[in-house]
Amino acid sequence: MILVATEYCPFCMRCILALEEKGIKYELSLVNLAKKAEFPELLSPYERVPVLKHDGKSIWESSVICEYLEDICPNPSLLPTDPWKRANARFWIDFCNTRFMPTYFNLLKSSKGSKREILRNDLLDHLGFMNTAGLSKWDHSSPYWMGKQVSLADFAFYPFFERFADVEEYRGIEISSELKNLQNWIETMRNHPAIGLVSRPRSHYVEYFRNYYAD
Ligand SMILES: N[C@@H](CCC(=O)N[C@@H](CS)C(=O)NCC(=O)O)C(=O)O
Description:
By secondary structure, the protein is α+β, with helices and mostly antiparallel strands. The protein has two domains: 2-72, Glutaredoxin, CATH 3.40.30; 83-213, Glutathione S-transferase Yfyf (Class Pi), Chain A, domain 2 (Up-down Bundle). Helix content is 54%, strand content 7%. The protein contains nine helices and four strands. Strand 3 (51-54) and strand 4 form a beta hairpin. Helix 1 packs across helix 5 and helix 3 runs antiparallel to helix 4 (114-134). It is globular and about 50 Å long. It starts with a strand and ends with a helix. It binds glutathione. The site of glutathione has 11 residues, from helix 2. Residues 6, 9, 11, 33, 36, 48-50, 61-63 line the site of glutathione.
């Protein structure tokens, strides 16, 4: 199994986390997207990575790749067994893909001005919603997004909190100390074994993203 990926890609990180958590043997093929015209066969139909190559077939889109990994390797499971909880995990993955992530990247790409302020407030609203609607139902003995077990919902969101220094440092976003559930979840994830394999210090992201996002 080969995962075609690129550095600093939160979507690729989701797949790496699922592969690592499941203990699946894979090869990581890192590509340089600046030269993507040279390897169209390695990209998705949308000309993106990650792409998973397995048994001569290709699978695209990080959320789909993660569900595929769940299908071919159900143990350890990264989705709850209860159908409602399973649906709930998928709701949060959808929220991450359709609300949280676009706001996050639009804020980073925005130039100074009122549009940036709107996006800043939108991202803060999303963080509040995640804190109260997503994470408030669990206590400290159930610290992951869906409870006691890490799941694909954790792996959908975490890559954005791994690099959160970019919105903090360059767009003035702060996770309020009142968002205790979110703070606890971030702490839990930072201590999760698979995260140790992909994480870098905050200062690394501040430096790396300076060229892209500093005004
Ligand atoms: N919805 C896709 C998004 C993947 C994506 O946007 N990947 C970026 C890298 S982080 C990419 O391949 N961009 C193509 C480019 O920069 O040319 C997924 O979840 O896999």
